[in-house]
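Colleagues,

Please find the record for the two-part complex below.
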Amino acid sequence: MAVAAEDFAQTIALDGARKQRGNLTQARIRWMVLAVVLGLGLVSGRLVQLGMAETDQTIEGQTRDVITATRPPILDRNGLEMAVDIRVPSLYAEPRRIIDVEEAVRKLRTVLPDIDEEWLRNRLTGDQGFVWVKRELTPAIQDAVMRLGIPGIDFITESKRFYPGMNEAAHILGSTNVDNQGIAGIERHMDSESVALLQELGLARGNALAPVELSVDMRVQHVMHEQLMDAMTRYQAIAAAGVMMDIHTGEIIALASVPDFNPNEPATALVKDTFNRITSGIFEPGSIFKTVTMAGALDSGSVQITDQFDARYGIRFGRYTIDDFHGKHRILALPEVYKYSSNIGTIRIMQAMGKDNYRAFLSRMKFDQRVEFELPEMRVPTVPDSFSEVAAATASFGHGLSVSPLHMVTAYAAFVNGGNYISPTLYKRDVAEAEALYERVLRPETSAYLRYLMRLNAISTGGSGSQMNKAAQGYRVGGKTGTAEKVVDGRYSSSKVTNFFASAFPLDNPRYAMVIMVDEPKAENAQSGTTAGWNAGTVTGRVVQRVAPMLGIAPDFSEVVDQQIVPAEVRQLYPEGF
Amino acid sequence: MIRNLNIFLLCVSVLMLAGVYALKFSIEGTASERSALVAHIEEQEGQLSLLKADWAVLNQPGHIDPIVKRHQAELAIGPVQQEQFGSFTALPMRPAKPDTAAMDALFAAITEGIDPIDAILQMEGIE
């Protein structure tokens, strides 16, 4: 048939044109179907391939940004690091890859004996892709574990917060948790500001974050901390705290409270009594509050600095009589009331002002609200909304109300800086920025009177600040003692006291205000006492003696600098000034 | 004609294929080099962070102070006292004119071979 077919030049086309075209279309459709099937086959093959692929189970690929999230370094006002990030190895396991759990547990415990055996066994058993074993280890431990050669156990580098100052600025810095989130202090405040957001967006990586500059001076902070530790042993106190503030800018230069904790071991912050006494402790301030009464009364104009007050007899309120601690029992001029810390005189001064005006002045000084400050650890002060006669009388010398030492230092700053209230801050702030925030609370003349009174208390004979002045000769420090009796079983106890010393220096041109607190001190030796001048006062003196040169304050022994702050009216009363 | 063109195109495409492959592999090589470098940088950054932390610890006043205290007696140092401060006003005024007679005497003594410094050095026991 084939041979026969060759003989013919052409077969006769029996199909019509329409059928021919139909055949062609059918062939084309077949080709197309084949192409589509091949294409689909390719796609599904790729799908299967993708399905077979091992996904990246290691932490490296998934949460790398979260665990290496860094925080900005914290610097003090001179650029010294207060908190830095370090990279540390953390141990993790992939239980599904561990072949012999028992062996892994036994081997790991030779290097990390403090891990509980049962806990570790449960941890490593199972089909999970990733579990933490122990975080934030040292490079030495990393080497030791690597040498064990256990499959399914590996390390990843994490960021960890490190505080090179150890305990010294613990209450300022606070601490961070294992995930590098701030849990206390300025670290927590920074998180509420911006760092948390940056970390969430994955931007907080590497060391690219701009450092945060605090107002704290680590040198001053060190001296403050050291002197407070010294006060703890010297006076066998249960606690001590101190805060120093720049009166013109409101910057906190130093803030310490002992007992404290090591922020590198956040668990130590949970120990009892390590709370920040400056911000979250509220105390009856005692006689350092007399300065507030004086300020209010002098500023209202209801008393003059030369006025005399009858302090011969105690003041009776019903069954109670309020008397003086070291009573002079004579008529005292206002500077003497301050110098001898006369309760009677102070009550009379407050009464001349009027109790409602006095209460209004406390509100003006913001004693009845939280101080605006960065640290989250804050307590609301307890100041009665309105005063009865007796409550106003006790409040005038600092009893029957509780405020934090931070309230006191802020008030004292306003008293000596010319009468401008400026809320404290832990961040750097210059005078121009601060001036925009000033709130006038006193007339400048009142501020000048108060400077004189504070200095008078330090250098005049019989002044309660003379113990303090002994150590800080030449630095023109002045201040007020406060010995507040503690309430024990519902009664004021004379043996358990909280002592304060609120001061400012150098008083001819004041720059810094400071409050030192010593809780339940005992006498250092037989010759000394337990009142504030002996402990909180001398601590203040020693701190100033050390820090004044660091802060650029040169000593000046000339009497002229002290004489020039004596107001003219006082000079009429006491020609010698003090 | 078409045939030659086809051969030429085939050669070109083979060459280009080879080129693309070479490029691909070289890029892969570069990429792995890069990731090795990134890992290396990261490792060194980690070490740097530790060194920085060390440096910060060594710079802390709280670290330096105990060292100073330890050597206080040996080096005869102590915290600065108020009496140690001076002021410009406390400096004596410059003499109105140099003491030429004393200078002449000094130069004469030196030319004669007597150095007044020697006497001081001998007194202090320094040779």
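Chain B has five helices and no strands.

Comments are welcome before we finalize the supplementary table.
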